[in-house]
Every structure is written in structure tokens, then in C-alpha cells.
Specification:
Blueprint: H1 3-47, H2 49-59, H3 67-87, H4 91-107, H5 117-122, H6 128-143, H7 150-170
Helix pairs in contact: 1-3, 1-6, 2-3, 3-4, 4-6
């Protein structure tokens, strides 16, 4: 085997290892980071309902929904959905849901984009947290919640049960 073939084989083994371990750990960290950010926002809203009502009636410009309905709905979304994201349960659909929710959140609060919305999209300072959360959620949408998730655990148990069920039926 030539030096180039050995280097290629070593590179492939390293890439496989990274994909098998670092990838799932990274997805887990991203899921937990986003889940904690949104859950903490929900806790703040829940602990101060009058302040939340004020924000939604005066500061936020949520489309379609009346401000009081948006306040209650937003609070409960931020208290419930992050648990699904953090645990990796029904990961892709909830990541997509929270991705859209994140877009609605930062577009509804013009104070987050002092340089204008379109300029804010292209700079690193305006609504930076929301951009980072969006990218993390996109990773979960693209690759799923990863091996370190309830989705993976349930999928593994389902495959095991399904294979065991087929083997016992053949007996």
C-alpha cells in the first residue's frame, strides 16, 4: 500500500470516528443550547405575566395574532417545545417549528435590528443570538437530532422489536 493510500485510509478512519462521536455530541450540545435559551425566555415570561402582556401589546409587533393571545401562546411554546428539542424527541419537526418561531420572534421586535432588517441580516451584531439559534436549528433539521436523542433510542428499540418480532413469527 502506498503512502497516499495509507494517508487516505487514515483520513477516512478519522472522518468516520468524527462522524460517529463528535457529530452526535455537537448536535446534542446545539439542541441543549437552543432549548435552554428558549426555555429561559419562557420562564421569564411566565414569572412576569404583566410585563409579558406589556411587551406584546407595546413593543412586539406579532403578525396575525392579537397581542394578548400571542403573549400566552409564545410563553407556552417557549416552556414546552424546548423540552422536545433538548431531549431530541420528534426532533426534526420541532426544530423546524422552533426555526419558524425564531424568525417570527426577531422580525416582530424591530429593536433587534437597529441598522434595518436587511442590513441586520448581513452583519454580525444585529439579532446575533437569533441567527446562531437559527443555524443550530437548521443543523437539527438537516441531520436530525443525532444518536444521542430519544428519537435515536426509540428508533433503535423499534428496529430491535421489529426484527425480533419478525424472527419469532418465522418460528
Amino acid at each position: 500500500m502506498s503512502l497516499i493510500q495509507r494517508l487516505h485510509a487514515a483520513y477516512a478512519r478519522g472522518a468516520d470516528w468524527l462522524g460517529a462521536w463528535v457529530g452526535p455530541i455537537t448536535l446534542l450540545c446545539m439542541r441543549i443550547w437552543v432549548a435552554l435559551a428558549f426555555w429561559h425566555a419562557g420562564v421569564v415570561k411566565f414569572e412576569d405575566p404583566m410585563g409579558t402582556q406589556f411587551l406584546f401589546n407595546v413593543m412586539y409587533q406579532v403578525p396575525v395574532l392579537p397581542p394578548n393571545v400571542a403573549a400566552v401562546l409564545g410563553t407556552w411554546i417557549e416552556l414546552i417545545v424546548p423540552w422536545f428539542i433538548g431531549l431530541g424527541l420528534i426532533g426534526r419537526p420541532f426544530a423546524l417549528f422552533l426555526f419558524v418561531y425564531n424568525i417570527i420572534a426577531f422580525t416582530s421586535f424591530p429593536a433587534l435590528w437597529p441598522h434595518g432588517f436587511w442590513a441586520g441580516l448581513l452583519n454580525t451584531s444585529d439579532f446575533a443570538d437569533h441567527k446562531i439559534w437559527g443555524l443550530m436549528l437548521l443543523a437539527v433539521i438537516a441531520w436530525g437530532p443525532g444518536r444521542l436523542s430519544l428519537d435515536a433510542l426509540i428508533g433503535s428499540a423499534w428496529r430491535h422489536w421489529h426484527v425480533s418480532g419478525n424472527n419469532s413469527a418465522a418460528v
